[in-house]
Amino acid sequence: MLTSAEKLETVEVAEAMVIRNGILLAKESGLWPLYVEPDSLSVMKLIFARSSTLSAVWLIIADILDTLENCLCGGNSFCA
């Protein structure tokens, strides 16, 4: 049986994977600019905070940030 923390991380991992897969699909299809409307406030907070953690969800968040920084142009808050 999963603990509450494990269940939360599982939900966050699933939500982050959906966001990542949507961004990758948009990138491959040339659909920019992109608007993401997630269901998980905690995942969005992790994305915007850009603070690494030792969790499974952070690996996906890092991939999301890397993809956005490589795809988006100047003036966007995700650009390096």
TrEMBL record:
Residue ranges occupied by any RNase H type-1 domain in the UniProt entry: 6-68
Example GO molecular function: RNA-DNA hybrid ribonuclease activity
Record-linked InterPro entries: RNaseH_domain
Family matches, as Pfam families: RVT_3 (PF13456)
Protein name: RNase H type-1 domain-containing protein
